[in-house]
Amino acid sequence: MANYKIALNFEDGITRVIECPEGEKVLDVAFRNKINLPMDCSDGVCGTCKCRAESGSYDLGEDYIEDALTAGEAAEGLVLTCQMVPASDCVIAVPTTSTACKIVQQKFSATVAKVVSHNDAAIVLEMDVQDVVPAFLPGQYVNIDVPGSGQHRSYSFSSAPGERRIGFLIKKISGGVMSTWLEQAQPGQKLQFAGPLGSFYLREVKRPLLFLAGGTGLAPFLSMLEVLAQSNSEQSVHLLYGVTRDLDLVLVDEIEAYSRRLSNFSFTTVVADEVSKHPRKGWVTQHILPEVLNGGDVDVYLCGPPPMVDAVRGYFDSQGVKPNSFHYEKFTPNIVTGAVA
User: Fold this and answer.
1) Which of 83, 153, 198, 295 has its CA 20 to 30 A from that of 60?
2) How far is CA 188 from CA 108, 127, 152, 170, in A?
3) Mean pLDDT score, 227-234
4) 63-76 pLDDT per residue, tens
5) What CATH number is given for 107-197 in this structure?
């Protein structure tokens, strides 16, 4: 009997992944996992348990009434979790907060495996997970506790879900709490983290993808690319990776490797510094070619500092471009905020 992974995404950015045995309903499995999804009748009559299935295949049966879920709503991906029987892994958007469903944020521990510094620009942190492997969607982030500081910092996974060795690409900040700790970190030291969090994650791939990364905003795209490579995705993917200085351009070899694993993958690097020797200078918006927008039939994912996110949004408006979907995440050294359009 198959077990399917069901990712429940709540309005406050918390995600919980549960295992759903073949033939079981989502609501029943959620309750068994002590997740109190909205419900009243549990018989397909009231519509209280209505959510949105963002990906995956499932069966809703015929034991619900039109007042609870219309044919038009079902066609748009709305589901009744009291009737929904998954036939694959699924992602479900729950229209309430995790606290309303009595969710306690998951905590994990891992030990430092490797710390690699890339000039004064970034640090690659790799950790080996202890006990439970965190379940997350490619693109999401966690809050990592900085030992001895009483503080935490938010970082997106650069590794794919399901791996015992997890990775992060961290912006190096002079005097920064995490950067300072990582300067003396040794293999075997333990770190605690909580999550996953965030509404910025890879949706079901149905059309060409355009990834726009600014600086260490590259991290979530490495996770997404690995998932696409593992699934042998055939959709075209273009990554536009922009940085401020030449020294900020890191992990290009890893990106290049995906060109060999994904037949329809291409990427472009851009440096903003006017004195750079890089062949492409300027801002990311100056290098978005019409062909990667595919006439608007494209899903755009953007992760970078707030000015970059605002510039791209302004560019689309000025050009009259409306992508099929546009998912973005802004970050500063200490804060991650996501939004989905």
Assistant:
1) 198
2) 15, 9, 19, 19
3) 93
4) 888 888 999 999 99
5) 2.40.30.10
CA distance 217 to 39: 38
200 phi/psi in degrees, rounded to 5: -95, 105
d(CA 213, CA 270): 10
Taking the CB of residue 88, how many other CB atoms lie within 10 A of it?
A: 12
For the chain, which residues make up each domain, given as ranges?
3-101, 107-197, 209-340
pLDDT digits (tens, 9 = 90+) for 34-52: 899 988 888 888 889 999 9
Q: Which amino acid is at 230?
A: Q
SS3 content of the chain, % helix, strand, coil (to 5): 25, 35, 40
In this predicted structure, the answer to whether residue 84 has a pLDDT above a threshold of 70 is: yes
Q: Is 46 helix (H, G, I), strand (E, B) or coil?
A: coil
Q: Tell me the one-letter amino acid at 329.
A: E
State the fold for domain 209-340.
Rossmann fold (3.40.50)
- Model pLDDT for residues 101-145, shown as the tens digit of each residue: 888 788 999 999 999 999 899 999 999 998 888 889 999 999 999
Start-end of H helices in the chain: 26-32, 71-75, 177-184, 219-230, 252-261, 290-293, 306-319
Note whether 3-101 and 107-197 share their fold.
Answer: no
Question: Strands across the sheet with 3-10, in order?
Answer: 15-21, 3-10, 90-94, 50-55, 78-80
